[in-house]
Amino acid sequence: MTVIDLRDSSGPNAARRPLSLAFGGGGAFGIAWHLAVIDALRDQGFATTDAPAIGTSAGSWACAALRLGLGFEDFAAIGDLDVPDRTPGLLAGIARDLMGDARADGVTISTVELPRMRRRLHSGADHDLADLVAASSAVPGLFAPHPVGGVLHVDGGVRSMASADHAAPADVLVASLPIAGPLFGPVGRVMESTARAALGRWRRRTGGITIVLRPGRRLATLVGLRPGAMFDLEVARRVYPVAYQQISDRLADRAAILAAA
Fold this sequence. Notes:
This protein is α/β, with parallel strands linked by helices. It has 8 helices and 8 strands. It has helices at residues 27-43, 58-68, 72-76, 90-99, 129-136, 185-206, 217-223, 233-260; strands at 17-23, 53-56, 107-113, 118-123, 146-148, 151-155, 170-176, 209-213. Strands 1, 2, 3, 4, 5, 6, 7 and 8 form an 8-stranded mixed sheet that branches. Helix 1 (27-43) packs parallel to helix 8 (233-260) and helix 2 runs antiparallel to helix 5. The longest helix is centred in the last third of the chain and has 28 residues, at 233-260. The radius of gyration is 17 Å and the shape is globular. It starts with 16 loop residues before the first strand and ends with a helix.
């Protein structure tokens, strides 16, 4: 398989990475979407294995999957969750079954620290991924806060649904935003607006280009208007193949632009 190398072999960008990834929040629906993004990028020749990645909430699980080689079937085997469930350690137990005590370089996970509600960015090299994804996914009111470094944290999406402005410098940043855009109503429009502003800050800081991947209408109808559907594993199972095809088509359309970047 041909690997698309976006690195400029000369000039000021020669030393930076060709590709950086940012994964936003979105529940089980979002995890399925992100895994389709990872698989589509890989199958179209992008060197994703060592690409730096930043993740929030569902996106934190995507970062772990990227580094540890976990696929959709690994996540589908988890089974359904009854939400809300504020049992302490619930998410960490699920994550540890998947990830063990693995850590990973090049991974940044966003959380919100209690009680001051400050956004924190954690390196996957400094903490077990299982603890980071449990903290980053601890949606207030749905799941119990989880400690990182002895301090309780909750879902990073409380402050920023993607933290794309803190993504690593690269020639291209792919932002995977599963619930952004007008199809998801007011929440989607807010996420789209804040993510676009963050991506603008990233472009000004790095000089790279950005690609936003978000669901189209067919995927939005799978979720519908039920908030609980975002955590419905059966919905996630239906999302993955549709998402994979949509993302593959989008990347194919952009191949010439990317190859020239």
